[in-house]
Design a protein that fits this description.
The chain is mainly β and 174 residues long. The chain has 1 helix and 11 strands, in the order ββββββββββαβ. It has a 3-stranded antiparallel beta sheet with strand order 5-9-7, with no helix packed on it. A two-stranded antiparallel ribbon has the order 1-4. The protein is globular, with a radius of gyration of 17 Å.
Length: 174
């Protein structure tokens, strides 16, 4: 365990039922995480949902020693909006960074996803994008992020077992 939890990222790990959903991080505390499954409203306007599987990665303070070779960095970008790109500057310069980000939702907020661009060197830009069929509104949320060098890492060589890759999509469904 950690002395305190500082950041977390979550992702859906499976789908139970016919309606799509995504994992929503609603709270990060020293004692744990609060997650919910947010259901889309493309086929209907209800959001009752069955159980789902989620994957999560938690970061905290209380671990001593330097960061492992992948130069793993975590943090929270405060008050990221859906109208203006926010630049996040890091304390390390990457050859080929991989960024994973998760918004921290507040109850009643419309569903959003994070979009990343210009991830190079020691910075990246982030913005929120509302899901289709969301009521129009201005949205801001704190966004938890993880940044690491692209590659395959092993415990013996790097102190951590991990593979970090990028996937770039040319389109999103609208």
């Amino acid at each position: 365990g950690f002395a305190s939890v500082t950041s977390a990222v979550v992702s859906a790990a499976g789908m139970d039922g016919g309606d799509g959903s995504w994992s929503v991080l609603t709270e990060v505390t020293a004692d744990g995480l609060r997650l919910v499954a947010e259901e889309d409203m493309l086929k209907d306007d209800e959001q009752a949902h069955t159980t789902e599987q989620a994957s999560y990665l938690v970061f905290g303070q209380g671990i001593t020693g330097p960061p492992p070779d992948p130069n793993l960095r975590t943090g929270v970008a405060p008050a990221v909006s859906d109208s203006v790109w926010t630049t996040v500057t890091l304390d390390h310069t990457y050859e080929d960074m991989v960024v994973v980000a998760t918004p921290n939702y507040v109850p009643g907020a419309p569903p959003v996803v994070t979009r990343i661009r210009n991830a190079a060197g020691n910075s990246f830009e982030i913005i929120l994008q509302q899901a289709v069929n969301s009521p129009p509104s201005s949205v801001t949320a704190d966004v938890h992020y993880v940044v690491v060098e692209k590659g395959v890492f092993t415990v013996d060589e790097h102190g951590v077992k991990m593979e970090a890759v990028k996937y770039s999509s040319g389109s999103t469904n609208t």
